[in-house]
Amino acid sequence: MTDGSADRLDDAFHVFDTTLRDGAQREGINLTVADKLTIARHLDDFGVGFIEGGWPGANPRDTEFFARAATELDLRHAQLVAFGATRRAGGRAADDPQLAALVDSGAPVVTLVAKSHDRHVELALRTTLEENLEMVRDSVSFLRSRDRRVFVDCEHFFDGYRANREYALAVVRAAHEAGADVVVLCDTNGGMLPSGVREITADVLASTGARLGVHAQDDTGCAVANTLAAVDAGATHVQCTANGYGERVGNANLFPVVGALETKYDRRVLPAGRLPEMTRISHAIAEVVNLTPSTHQPYVGVSAFAHKAGLHASAIKVDPDLYQHIDPERVGNTMRMLVSDMAGRASIELKGRELGYDLSTDRDLAGRVVARVKERELAGYTYEAADASFELLLRDEVHGRPARFFSLESWRTISEQGPGTTAGNEATVKVWAHGERMIATGEGNGPVDALDRALRTALERIYPQLVKLELTDYKVRILEGQHGTGSKTRVLIESTDGTASWSTVGVADNVVAASWVALQDAYTYGLLRAGLQPED
Amino acid sequence: MTDGSADRLDDAFHVFDTTLRDGAQREGINLTVADKLTIARHLDDFGVGFIEGGWPGANPRDTEFFARAATELDLRHAQLVAFGATRRAGGRAADDPQLAALVDSGAPVVTLVAKSHDRHVELALRTTLEENLEMVRDSVSFLRSRDRRVFVDCEHFFDGYRANREYALAVVRAAHEAGADVVVLCDTNGGMLPSGVREITADVLASTGARLGVHAQDDTGCAVANTLAAVDAGATHVQCTANGYGERVGNANLFPVVGALETKYDRRVLPAGRLPEMTRISHAIAEVVNLTPSTHQPYVGVSAFAHKAGLHASAIKVDPDLYQHIDPERVGNTMRMLVSDMAGRASIELKGRELGYDLSTDRDLAGRVVARVKERELAGYTYEAADASFELLLRDEVHGRPARFFSLESWRTISEQGPGTTAGNEATVKVWAHGERMIATGEGNGPVDALDRALRTALERIYPQLVKLELTDYKVRILEGQHGTGSKTRVLIESTDGTASWSTVGVADNVVAASWVALQDAYTYGLLRAGLQPED
User: Fold this and answer.
1) What is the pTM of this model?
2) DSSP-assigned letters across all residues of A56-118
3) By the 8 A CB rule, do A106 and A70 touch?
4) Separation CA B474–CA B504 (nearest Å)
5) Which of A120, A318, A484 is the closest to B124 by Cβ?
6) With 90 as the cut, is the pLDDT of residue B471 above it?
7) Which of A406, A404, A401, A467 is nearest to A436 (CA)?
8) How would you classify the pairing of strands B109-115 and B79-85?
9) Which of the residue ranges A90-104, A168-182, B229-243, B331-345 would you say has the lowest mean pLDDT?
10) Whether A27 and B482 lie within 8 Å, measured CB to CB
11) Given A232, A309, A476, which is nearest B478 (Cβ)?
12) Which residues does A533 contact at the CB level (< 8 Å), separation at least 6?
C-alpha cells in the first residue's frame, strides 16, 4: 500500500455509493435524516469517493438531509452528490424548479437521471426522442454553468441499447458533449449477465469516447460480476450500495465490488488503510438500517471465513492460505473453525486455540473432546451455532468435571387456557446453590419464558450478576420430523450480559426439557464470564 | 418449450445439485436422514438431472441415507450420485474400503474428488505428483469396471492452474482418459472472477478435449456469474446448491443459475413445465433446513418482483415488462405492487380455483379473503406453507361461518422433571362436541404431544375417523427474535390420514397456545376430508 497521508484519491477511479438514495428503495428500509447522516459518516470513514445523498426537492426528508449535511457532515474522503432528473419536456433548464433545487442543495456534484431507452421516452416520458436528447443537453449545460460537476445516469441503458443501439449511443453522446464528466450505464431492471455488460460497455466506449460508469441491479444474482465486467471493458466509475441494499433483489454490493478491485485487481480504489474497516462498517450500517447483517455476505459475513469440513481443517493447520481466497484480516474479518461431527481433531485444536485452550500438547484430551462432540451431535446437539455450550464442554474435559453453580431438584411448567381467557403459563423450579434449597415460581409468555423467570428469581439473591443476563433469541428445531410431536427437540438460546452475547444448546424429547438444558448452560456461561468460581 | 412427456432430459447438459453434500456444509445446517430424503424429493420434483446425496462410508448418516434412498426414493427426473475421494496414496483402488463403500451405496453415478493443485498434493495429500495422477487413473478405472458413471471434481482447480498449469491439465487428462464422463473444474476457495473462469475453462477445453463441468463457491459474490462464464466457455455440467447453501459464503445458487440458463440463454435445462415450480421449491427446501427463505433472493425471493410505488407506478400500468427483467410467472413468482392489493386478489383467485372455489364471480368475497389473509399474515401467520389452514379460511368466508366439530372449554399442560427422573408431560383438555362435555388426559413426549393425545382421547368416541389421523411433522419458528423467550411463536403441523397429508398453522405468544390453534385446524381439516359435516 502507499502513502497513508493521501486522504483523497485521485480522480482516475470513482467508488460511488448510492445507499442513501437507491439503497433506501429496499423493501423494509425507512431512513430518518439522522440515520442518513450516520450512514454518510460510515461511508466516508470507509473511504468511498462519492456519497449520493438523495433527491433534494423530491421529498422534505432529502431536502433536510442536504441542509443538515452542509453544517453537520465533515467529510474527509467523500464528496456529497445530489440526485435529480433532466428538466421537464418542453421547458427550459434554467426555469426548472427541480434543477434549481439540485443547485440549492449545495452539493458539489449532481447525478442526473436520463432516459436512454426509446420506448421509455415514448411511454413513460411521453415526449419525442429528439426532445429527450435536448433535455439531456440543456440540463447538463445548465448545471455546468452553475459550476456543478455532473454525472448522467442512463436509465435502462442496456435494454435500450438492445432495442435501439443508435438512440442509446446518442443519449451518451449528448450527455458527454454537454459536459457530463461520467456517463453511467444503468441496468435498471437488473436482467443483464456479465458477458453482455462487457460487450456493450466496450462498444459504447469505442463509439463515444465518453468516460463511463456502471450501475447494476442484482436481479440475476450477477450485480457484482456485472460491475466488474464493465470495469474490464473500461468503465472507471462504479455505483454501489452498502450490503447490496436496493429495490427488488438489490443493487451491486459495495463491499465485494471494492474487495475484488482491491484484492483481485490490485487496484487502489480506497484511501490507504481503509480496507480492513470493511467488515466493521458493513455491520455498522446494517445496525443503522435495522437489518440483521447477512451472515453469508462475501468478505464481511461472520461465516465468510468459517470452516466446517474435517477434510479441510487438517490442511488449514498446515497452511491457512490453502483454504481461503484471501487473508480475512485484509478486510477486517477473521477465520473461524466450526465444530461439528464432520470435524476431526485438527479443527477442535484450532477451535480450542481460538478459545484460549492449547489442546495440541495433549492428544488424549483432544481425542476425548472430539469423541464427546461426535456422540452429542449424534444425539442431536449442534455446536457450530452454540459456541458457549462447546466452550463449557471443552472446559469440563480440561477440568475433569462440569462447571456447576446450582443443581436441580425439580422443575414444573403449567400452561393453561381456561374458558374465556387467554393462555397463561407458570413455572416452578426447586434448585440448590451454596447448600441452600431455593423454590421460586415465575409467569411468562410460554412455558420456557416462565421457566427462565422462575430460575432467575430462585438464584438472583445468591448470584446478583444474573440481573444483567438477558435472553435475546430462542430457536426451536424438531429433529427427525417423521414422528410428529413425539420427535426430539433442539433448542438454541442466545443470551447477553450487555457486553458480549453467547449461544447455548439443549436437546431432549421435550421442548421444555431441552430448553432447561440450554438455559442451564446459558446461566453457567454467564456466571463464568462474570468471573465467579463454580461450586465443587 | 417441448414435449411434456419427456421426464428425463438428454445428456447434453447436466444440472447437478449438491445441496445434500456440499450445501450441508453451511454453518447452521444440520440435516437428518429424513430431511435429506425430503430435500431429494423436492430437487427431483424441480427436475435436476443429478442429486449428490453425500459421502457413503464417511459418516453413518450418509451411509444410512443411501440405504434408505434405495427403497424410499422414487426419482422421476434425477439420478442419485455418491461422493467420495480417489484411493489412498500407495494403495490399490480395488482394495480401498472407501471406494468399496461408494460401489456399495448402489448409486449409479459417483463423483470423485481429486487434487489438481500441486501444493495441495504435496502438503495435504503428502504424496508425489505422479502418484496423485495414478490415484486418479486407478480410482476412475476401478469404478468404471464396476459400471459406475464417474464425474471427477478437480479440487482447487483454478488456483492450481495458476500455480502449475501443466500439472492441472495433466489431472484433467488423467481423469478423462481413464473414463470419467465429466471433469469438473472447482473453485474450491471461491476467489475467482468470471473473466478468469472463462479464460481458463476455454484453455482446458481446447487443451484436453474433456467434457467439462464447473463448481463455484461464492466468496467473491460471483458464483452464479462464474458458473455462467464456464458455460460460455463450453462447460456443459453445472454443480449448484438450492438457495446457494454451502460452506463459508455458499455455493453457486441453483435457482439463478437455472433461471439464467432457461430465461436468458433460452436453453432447456429442466424437464418441460418445471421452471414455474422454482419459487415454491426454493421456499420448501428452506423450510426443511429451517432457515428463513431469503426475501431478496434473485428470481424466487418475495421481494424479487416487488415495486415500490412512485416514479415507476404509471409506467408499470402501461407495460409491466418495462420494469421487470422477466415475467415473474415464468419462475412461479409474482409481481407485488407494495401499495395495491390487486396482485393479491389475482393470486387468491387462482388459489381458490386450485381448491375448487370460483372466486372470480364474487369480487366482494375475494376481497374479504385477501383482507383476512393480509391481517393474519401481519399477525405472523403464513399460508404458503399451510394449505389446509388457508383452505379452512377460504371455506369459512364462503360459508360465512367457521367449520367446527368441537369447541374448547379449556386445556392445560404440565411438564415436570422431579429429582432423579426424566421429564414427563401431561395434558388435560375439556371440550364439547354433539352437546356433550368431554374431559381427557394424555401423556406425551413434550406438552404438545400430550395435548394431541388428550384431544384425540376426548374426541375419538364421537369421531372414530380420528384413529387414522396422525401428526407427521411439527415445526416451531420464533418470530421477531429480539425478545428472547417472550417472542411470538409460529407452529406448523403436518398431518396425514394415510392417503393425503396437509399442513396447518397457529400463531400465539406461547408455543402451546400456537400449537393448539394448529392442532384444531389439523383435526378440523381431517374430519372434513373424512366427509363429515361440521356442527352448526
Assistant:
1) 0.73
2) BTTBHHHHHHHHHHHHH---SS-EEEEEEEPPPTTS-GGG-HHHHHHHHT--SEEEEEEE-SH
3) yes
4) 10
5) A318
6) no
7) A406
8) parallel
9) B331-345
10) no
11) A476
12) none
Where are the alpha helices (H) located in B382-446, listed in sequence order? 387-399
Torsion angle of the four alpha carbons B526, B527, B532, B536, in this order, in degrees rounded to the nearest 10: -120
Supply the pLDDT for residue B97: 95
Q: Given strand B488-496, what is the order of strands in its sheet?
A: B470-479, B488-496, B501-508
Geometric angle at alpha carbon B334, from B48 and A194, rounded to 5°: 60
Residue B447: left (phi > 0), alpha (psi -120 to 50), or beta? alpha
Beta carbons of B26 and B250 less than 8 angstroms apart: yes
Domains of chain A: residue spans and CATH: 14-289 (3.20.20.70), 306-378 (no CATH), 406-462 (3.30.160)
In this structure, the strands spanning B424-433 and B407-417 are: antiparallel
Strand B306-307 with A501-508, pairing: unpaired
Question: Grid coordinates standing for A483?
Answer: 414422528
Side chain identity, residue B215: H
Q: C-alpha cell of A283?
A: 455491520
Q: Give the integer Cα–Cα distance in Å for B263 and B235.
A: 18
Residue B339's Cβ-count burial label (10 Å; 0-12, 13-18, 19+) is exposed
The DSSP letter of residue B461 is: T
For the stretch A47-86, pLDDT in tens is 999 999 999 988 788 999 999 999 999 999 999 999 999 9
Instruction: Assign 3-class secondary structure to A361-414.
Output: CCHHHHHHHHHHHHHHHHCCCCCCCCHHHHHHHHHHHHHCCCCECCEEEEEEEE
Nearest by CB to A221, from B232, B253, B494: name it. Answer: B253
CB contact, 8 Å: A517 with chain B? no
Rounded (10°) CA dihedral B241, B246, B252, B255: 40
Contacting residues for B123 by C-beta, under 8 A, at least 6 apart? A315, A318, A319, A322
Q: Which helix (H) or strand (E) holds B16?
A: strand B14-17
How far B313 CA sits from the closest chain A CA (Å)? 10
Would the CA dihedral through B186, B190, B191, B196 be positive or negative? Answer: positive
Cell 426430539 belongs to which residue?
A: A488
Residue B54: C-alpha distances to residues B25, B33, B75 (Å):
11, 11, 16
d(CA B458, CA B455): 5
What is the C-alpha to C-alpha distance for residues A297 and A299, in angstroms, rounded to an integer? 6
pLDDT at B339 (0 to 100): 41
Nearest-CA neighbor of A471 among B487, B512, B27? B487
Task: Provide, for chain B, the percentages of residues in helix, strand and coil under a 3-state DSSP scheme, each rounded to the nearest 5.
Answer: 45, 20, 35
DSSP helix/strand/coil, B67: helix
**Inter-chain CB proximity A511 and B446 less than 8 Å:** yes
In chain A, % helix, strand, coil (3-state, to 5) comes to 45, 20, 35
CA distance B293 to B302: 9
By the CB < 8 Å criterion, does B330 face chain A? no
Strand-pair partners of A182: A151
Could you tell me the three cell numbers for B421? 427422573
Q: What is the ipTM of this complex?
A: 0.74
What is chain B's length? 536
Question: DSSP readout, A222-266?
Answer: -HHHHHHHHHHTT--EEEEBGGG--STT-B-BHHHHHHHHHHTS-
Cell of A164: 435501439
Interface of A with B in 275-304 (CB under 8 A): 295-299, 301, 303-304
